[in-house]
Design brief:
three-stranded antiparallel sheet; about 400 residues; Receptor-associated Protein; about 5% strand; mainly alpha
C-alpha cells in the first residue's frame, strides 16, 4: 500500500502532520473524518529509486518488531495504565527497558509527539512498520472512551492468539519442508558422487546401457560440468522471488496461490479467517463503525488476496447490502458460517457470532493440523519410492545385466 503525507486539524484545532500507510487518499480522509479530525491536505509519497548503501545497511541492522514484542508491550501498557501511571512516564520507562531497539526508538519518538500535543494513537500511526493499523485504531477508541487499559489487554490477547495460530501452522509444515529438503540434497549428492563412480564401471564393461541409465548419467554429467550455472540460476531465482514478493502485485499473486496449495492451502485460508474473525470482532465490540472495522481488519490479516475480499465486503455494506450477503459474494465462507452470520445479524449479536465463527475455524485448523502428518506421509513415501525406483532402473539394473553376461 502507498504512503500518504497528511496535514489535519484535530478536535481542538491543533495542526497535526505525519505520514501513514493507507489504501487511498479517499479512504484516509474518511478515517480522519470519522475520528472528528479535519483533513487539510493528503498527498501520496512518491517511492524513490535511489539506493543509499548507508541507509540500506542501517535498515538491515534494525531488528524487526515481532508479535512477541507487541504482546509484551501491550501487557506492559495494560499493567502501567491500569495502575494509574501517566502515559508519558509509562512510555519513557518502556523506552529504557525495551528489548527490541526498533520498538524502543519508535516509542521514544511517540513520547516526543505526546509532549508536543499529539494523541497517543496519532503517535503510533506515524510508525506503521512497528504498530499495526488495528492497534492504532483500537488505541484511538480507548482514548475516546477512557478505557485504554482494557484496549491494551484485548490487543495482547488478540496478538497471543494470532501468534499461537501462526506457530501451529509453521510446526505442521516443518516436517514436509524438512523431508523435501533432505530429498533434494540426496539427489544432488547421488548425482555428483554416486553415479560417477558407477559410470566408470559401466564404461569399462563396454556394454549397451539401458535408456534410463543413459538419461541418469547425462543429468549427472551436466550437473558435474555446469554446477556453477545451476547454482547461479538457483541464487538468481531466489533473489527474483524475494524482489517480486516486495512488490504489491507479486505479494498479491503469492497470497492468492498459496491458498490453493494441496493439503496446506485450506489450513492457511482457515487460519487467516480466524485472524479476520477475531480482529473484526475486537474492533466491532470496541465500538468502531462496521465499515471502518472491516477496513482495518483487511490490513491486519497479512494476506493481500483475503484483504481484497474483506474490502469487497466493506464495499458491499457501504452500498447497502447486508453483512451476510456481502460475505456470500466473496466465496470464502462455508454455508454453515454464513448461516451463523445471518443469525447474528437477525438477532443483533454480530459480535458474539463472530467469536463463534473464530472458534469454529480454529477447531477446523486444529483438526486439519493433527491429520496433516498422516496425509503427507503417503506422499513422502511415494516420492522416496520413486527415487529408489529410478536408482534401481538406472544404476542397479545394468549391474545385474553385466553380472548375468559375465556368467
Amino acid at each position: 500500500m502507498p504512503f500518504f503525507r497528511y496535514k489535519v486539524r484535530d478536535a481542538e484545532g491543533n495542526l497535526v502532520e505525519g505520514q501513514v500507510e493507507a489504501f487511498s487518499a479517499a479512504a484516509l480522509a474518511s478515517q480522519f473524518q470519522a475520528s472528528q479530525t479535519i483533513p487539510i491536505s493528503i498527498t501520496e509519497v512518491a517511492e524513490t529509486q535511489n539506493i543509499d548503501l548507508g541507509k540500506l545497511f542501517n535498515i538491515k541492522r534494525r531488528a524487526k518488531v515481532t508479535l512477541d514484542d507487541l504482546i509484551l508491550f501491550c501487557r506492559q501498557m495494560y499493567t502501567l495504565s491500569s495502575s494509574g501511571v501517566p502515559i508519558v512516564r509509562a512510555l519513557r520507562g518502556l523506552v529504557e527497558t525495551a528489548r527490541n531497539p526498533t520498538l524502543g526508538e519508535a516509542l521514544g519518538k511517540v513520547v516526543e509527539d505526546l509532549e508536543s500535543g499529539m494523541e497517543l494513537s496519532g503517535g503510533f500511526s506515524r510508525h506503521p512498520h512497528v504498530f499495526p493499523a488495528l492497534l492504532c485504531r483500537m488505541v484511538q477508541v480507548g482514548e475516546v472512551t477512557g478505557k485504554l487499559d482494557e484496549v491494551f489487554i484485548q490487543l495482547a490477547i488478540y496478538f497471543e492468539r494470532e501468534k499461537d495460530t501462526i506457530n501451529r501452522v509453521k510446526s505442521a509444515l516443518r516436517y514436509p519442508s524438512f523431508v523435501l529438503t533432505a530429498i533434494a540434497m540426496a539427489v544432488v549428492f547421488i548425482s555428483l558422487f554416486v553415479i560417477p563412480a558407477f559410470e566408470k564401471v559401466f564404461a569399462g564393461a563396454g556394454a549397451q546401457l539401458p535408456l534410463a541409465t543413459r538419461i541418469l548419467m547425462g543429468l549427472s554429467s551436466f550437473m558435474q560440468n555446469y554446477w556453477y550455472v545451476l547454482l547461479g540460476a538457483f541464487i538468481l531465482l531466489v533473489v527474483a522471488i524475494k524482489q517480486a514478493l516486495k512488490t504489491e502485485r507479486g505479494r498479491y499473486t503469492w497470497d492468492r496461490y498459496k491458498l490453493k496449495i494441496p493439503l496446506v492451502g485450506d489450513i492457511i485460508l482457515r487460519s487467516t479467517l480466524v485472524r479476520f474473525s477475531r480482529g473484526f470482532n475486537m474492533s466491532y465490540t470496541a465500538g468502531i463503525p462496521l465499515s471502518q472495522a472491516l477496513g482495518f481488519t483487511a490490513r491486519a490479516v497479512s494476506n493481500a488476496y483475503v484483504g481484497e475480499k474483506i474490502e469487497a465486503i466493506r464495499n458491499g455494506i457501504e452500498r447497502g447490502d447486508t453483512l451476510t450477503r456481502s460475505a456470500t459474494q466473496t466465496g470464502m465462507f462455508t454455508p454453515l458460517v454464513l448461516q451463523m452470520l445471518a443469525v447474528g445479524e437477525e438477532s443483533g449479536s454480530v459480535d458474539t457470532m463472530l467469536e463463534d465463527v473464530a472458534d469454529f475455524y480454529e477447531r477446523e485448523v486444529d483438526y486439519d493440523l493433527k491429520n496433516l502428518s498422516s496425509a503427507i506421509e503417503p506422499i513422502m513415501i511415494v516420492i522416496i519410492g520413486g527415487m529408489v525406483l529410478v536408482l534401481a532402473l538406472g544404476v542397479f539394473l545394468p549391474m545385474w545385466n553385466l553380472a548375468s553376461i559375465s556368467r
